[in-house]
Amino acid sequence: MSRTISHRSLALPLSALALLALTAGTVTACTGPGAASESAASQSASHETGQPVEATRHMIDNDGHHLAFYVTEGTGPTVVLDSGGGEDSSYWKDLVPELHEATGATVITYDRAGLGQSEVVPGPWQVESAVSDLESGLEQLGVTDDVTLVSHSQAGQIATYLAQDNPALLSGAVLVDANLPPFFTDEQIERLVAFSQPQLDAAQEDPDNPQNRQLLSTAESFVATSTAFHQATWPDAVPATVIVSEKTPFDGSPEDVQRWKDAAASFVQDGPRRTLVTADGSSHDVAKDRPDLVLEEIENMVAAQH
C-alpha cells in the first residue's frame, strides 16, 4: 500500500462499470419521526460475545417514496456506508459487523431508490434527489452530527453535495474509489458515453432488472449531471481519505486508468486535511478485494476525530 498525505486536498458512478461507477451524530433512538422500524435479519455475530448483531430496518418516507435504512446500534459516532451504482446495502454486509466491533459506532447502511427494499423513483437519476433521500433518512433517524461517511463509486457524487450542503453533519469521509469532480472533464464525459453504449444497449433488453434500471436512468441524465459535478467542490472543513484502487474501474484502458488516478491526486492536493491511499492489487471493488484496508481507513478516520 502506498500512502501520501497532503496539506491540501474525486468519485464516479458504475454498475456496468464504466458508467455506473461513474454513473457505482449518535442514534439515540431507533425510531425517529416518520420512520417505521422493524428488526431485520441478523447480519452477523459479534466476535466478542458470539451473539447476533442485528440491524433494525427503518422505512423512511421522503418526497412520496419509501427507503430502507438499516441501523446497527452502537455508541459515540455514526458511520454511514453508501454503496456504488447498482448496489444496495447488502454490498457492505461483511464489513458492517467488523466495523461495529472495531469502532463501537452506530453503523447505518441503506438502499437507494429503486434498489433493495427501497421504492423506485421513475425518471432520470438526479443526484439532488439522492442527496435529499440520505439527508432525510439521517434526520428522521435522529442523526445530526458526528457522521463518518463512507462512499463507494457513484456515491462519491452524493457525498460531495452532502458535504457541501451539510459540512457540520460530517466529521469526516472515506471515499472508496469514488467519483470525484476533477475526473469529469468534457473530454472524459464524451469518452464514457461512447464506452458505455454497448452496456446500455444490453440493459435495454431487460429494463426491469434493478441494476439495468439504474444504469438506464443514470445514463439519461449522465452528461448534465457529470458536467455540473465537475464544478463541485469539497468543503475544507471536512477531512477526507481517498482510497484509489490500483486497477480502477478502467482496467484495460491505461489512459483512463491514469486519468482516474490523476483526478484522485488532484482532489487531494486541492484542499487541506485530505489523504490519498492506494489499494494495491485491488479492482474497483475495493471493499471486496481489500476489506482490511477499507476497515483500517474508516477506523483511522473515526479515531482521528475523537
Topology at a glance:
Elements: E1 2-6, E2 35-45, E3 52-62, E4 65-72, E5 78-82, H1 95-103, E6 106-110, H2 127-140, E7 147-152, H3 155-165, E8 170-176, H4 186-203, H5 210-229, E9 240-245, H6 254-269, E10 274-279, H7 286-289, H8 291-304
Parallel strand pairs: 5-6, 5-7, 7-8, 8-9, 9-10
Antiparallel strand pairs: 1-10, 2-3, 3-4, 4-6
Helix pairs in contact: 1-8, 2-3, 4-5
What do these coordinates show?
Helices cover 35% and strands 23% of the residues. The protein is α/β, with parallel strands linked by helices and 306 residues long. The chain has one domain (2-304): Alpha/Beta hydrolase fold, catalytic domain (Rossmann fold). It has a 10-stranded mixed sheet, with helices on both faces. A hairpin with a 6-residue loop joins strand 2 and strand 3. The longest helix is centred in the last third of the chain and has 20 residues, at 210-229. This is Alpha/beta fold hydrolase. Residues 32-51 are annotated as: Disordered.
> How far apart are the first and last residues' alpha carbons, in Å?
25 Å
Helix and strand sequence: EEEEEHEHEHEHHEHEHH
Give a quick account of the main beta sheet: strands, pairing sense, barrel closure: 10 strands, mixed
CATH topology: Rossmann fold
Structural class: alpha/beta
Shape: globular
Regarding CATH, which class? Answer: Alpha Beta
Helix content: 25-40%
How would you write the strand order of the largest sheet?
1-10-9-8-7-5-6-4-3-2
Oligomer classification: single chain
| Fraction of residues in β-strands | 15-25%
CATH-assigned homologous superfamily: Alpha/Beta hydrolase fold, catalytic domain
Total strands: the figure is: 10
Low-confidence stretches: 1-18, 23-34, 41-52
Radius of gyration: 18 Å
Number of domains: 1
How much is the average pLDDT? 85
Biased composition (Low complexity): 32-46
Organism: Cellulosimicrobium arenosum
InterPro entries: AB_hydrolase_1, AB_hydrolase_fold, Carboxylesterase_BioH
Keywords: Hydrolase, Signal
